[in-house]
Automatic annotation (TrEMBL):
This is LacI family DNA-binding transcriptional regulator. It comes from Boseongicola sp. SB0664_bin_43. Gene3D superfamilies: 3.40.50.2300, lambda repressor-like DNA-binding domains. PROSITE patterns: HTH_LACI_1, HTH_LACI_2. CDD domains: HTH_LacI, PBP1_GntR.
Amino acid sequence: MANRTTLKDVARAAGVSQMTVSRVVRGDTVVSVRTREHVERVIGNMGYVPNKLAGSLAQAYSNQVAVLIPSLVNNVFASVLAGITEELEKGGYNPVVGVTEYDLRKEEAQLVSMMSWRPAAVILANLVHTDRTRSILKSTSVPVVEIMDVGGDPIDLCVGLDHEAAAATLADYLMERGYQRFGYLGWQTNDFVAAARFRAFRARLETRGYGLVAPDAYHAPPDMPAGKRGLEMLLSAAPKTEVVAFSNDTAAMGGVNLCLEWGMRNPDDMANAGFTGLRMAQCLPQPSTTIM
């Protein structure tokens, strides 16, 4: 945590008065375009966020905690949010939630909006952010917690798992079971941890001389309908596939449903594997292998 950047700091760095900075922040048209653009650049570089509570509350921070997650379609994040909410409420805090849809620019915009209300802390998923987001988080004096991933350079606190190690472990397990024709479905390039799992899974197979059948057959959001459609497309392209690893258990559940429709036995005819260890995935008539 660092000392919070103030309006006075911005004015000093920009070489203008505090009133000029205040007018730029308020969108006052009395400021010239050249000066406005200069001050806005300084604001962006310093990670300054205006305080909307100033003058209305005596306390420096609210009892709200900013929580930014990439998706609510992915059941993992619904469970994570439930856990965060439960623990925050014990301490008298309330989560204010933003859904970024795996869009770093949207994450940045939501963070700027939330920080203007002086949250008591910030929780956000993953370790990849825009430069401005990182600047804002590094300049704040409240705790910043990045969750879900530990494979990078955290800004402050970090809680998560090594996704590359998890993917490699799953690949090892499937190879030890004797599978030789592997498929992989349901990853998105803007979901950085899912993409990391995909790369690590494929790389581990390659160390033993294996590859992926139809590796580009289907890229889509990791949900049940996408898992079902994706498996159908993959099997059309590579019908002798022996095992398919899905980006997460939700997508794997869609794959299991397709196997049930087609009368395929899991794992005898073809095996399904996923990530995240969702309990509901183990309630299917033919549960898939998972890792968490």
